[in-house]
Design goal:
The chain is an alpha+beta fold and 317 residues long. It has helices spanning 3-15, 28-34, 196-219, 288-295, 306-313, and strands spanning 51-58, 62-69, 80-86, 91-97, 108-115, 118-126, 129-135, 141-152, 158-162, 175-179, 184-189, 231-233, 238-240, 245-253, 265-273, 282-287. Strands 5-6-7-8-9-10-11 form a 7-stranded antiparallel β-sheet.
Amino acid sequence: MTALHRLACAACFCLGLLALPSASAETLREYLMARGIDPEGVSGPNLDRAITSGDCLDEEGLFLTAYYLEHASGRLVGPIQVEMLDKKRRIWTHKEVEKGWDTCPGGGILNIRRTKTGFCWYGHINPSAGVTFILSPTLELLGCVLGSYRGDFADGTIVYANSLPHFAPTHPGELSLYNPNDKSDRKIYPMKPWQAVREGHIAKVRAAYDRLGQEWLREHNHHGDPDQFTSIIGDAVATNDATDSLAFIALFDNSETLDEAAPRHTKVVYIYRNMHTEGRIDYREILHDEVKSRFGDISLQELLEPKMLEVLFGDPS
């Protein structure tokens, strides 16, 4: 049993991820017809079976849905069922996605999306945790990560925000890379050595903890580590395969500094390069207001162009 399996199952057990049976449960046929999809030709065995906790991706040439069969226990029991329709050729494909255990395969399915090399979806466990399933164009399961998709590269590498313990005094956002080809998994944010913006925020949080005192920290079961301040990773990470770079926004939570005059969050832009070069990953950290002041309303994607990277890093990459 892997650590991912143990954590996912523990979360499911604690929260009781249930799909309560209903006398009028929707069948797969009804689900498809409600979305304007003709079920004729569905190749799988589930057309008139009750389904639950699924999602779909509906594009011009493709329809894909992933779901669970309703179970008598009321729990989400795998394998996850998948139906894919090639709309132009009217060809249906049925797959069962199995993670190696029967129950608690990741929670209700959300956010099915196309990636550069296939598909992925998110299995919701709790508000702070879930599992991202990574699939090939033919719906073969390539890997799973405990976290939520943020972006990807052309070689199949997924950028994801790590899941966090839900009940904790702080929630320090983390970002990682997972390559399903070699199963490598690397945390890239936060990355030491810290740069000026992060160091400044840590100093403010440390001062706030000093004001609160050790007794308060003990009474509130607080770790008291200013490095572990709460930060939120933005929903989208921009990637550029040609420059092997990525960019994202992190929001630093100012409530932990006890500065009532400060805005709710400090918005910080991160730009990384050399993502696929061992030992050469480099990054820059810039306040969002400074980015706007220097470059105007520039997008994260535009920050990853070669000339912009030269400006940001001070030399050709």
